[in-house]
Amino acid sequence: MSQPEWFDWAQSERKVSDYLQEQDPLLFTAICQLLFDCNPMVIPLMTEPQGYAPEVGSILRILPQCQSEDDVREVLHNVFIQWFSAEFAGSPGQYGEAANKLWALWVSQQSE
Predict the structure, then answer these.
(1) For residue 19, how many other CB atoms are within 10 A of its CB?
(2) Spatial distance between the Cα atoms of 64 and 110, rounded to a whole number of angstroms
(3) How would you write 9-74 as a 3-class SS string?
(4) Burial of 96 (0-12, 13-18, 19+ CB in 10 A)
(5) Please, are residues 21 and 32 in contact by the beta-carbon 8 Å criterion?
């Protein structure tokens, strides 16, 4: 029996995530914690920040292209749509707090 198409994509994204975590473990951990604290999808089963590691890899791959908090909100929403579905990801508005905090973190990282 062959793997579903999304399985290969998810495996590839997890490899990217692992690589990015190795490159900047502090930033990676901070973003996991940020998403855990904000919980934009309201996932009650998420019990630890590292549960967001696969999504953080996808976010970090795109984050350098962002020019504003609005861009970050769009990236967050799109990443969660990719990983889950549009139905489970909810509306872009759910990602406002996380986008605000992530943009501030990213800008501070770039100025160091």
Answers:
(1) 12
(2) 10
(3) HHHHHHHHHHHHHHHCHHHHHHHHHHHHHHCCCCCCCCCCHHHHHHHHHHHHHHHHHCCCHHHHHH
(4) middle
(5) no
Summarize pLDDT for 43-100 with one digit per residue, the tens.
Answer: 777 789 998 999 999 999 999 999 999 999 999 999 999 998 999 999 999 999 999 9
Start-to-end CA span in the chain (Å): 50
pTM of the predicted structure, to 2 decimals = 0.89
DSSP-assigned letter for residue 87:
H
Q: Considering only CA atoms, which of 75, 34, 103 is closest in space to residue 111?
A: 103
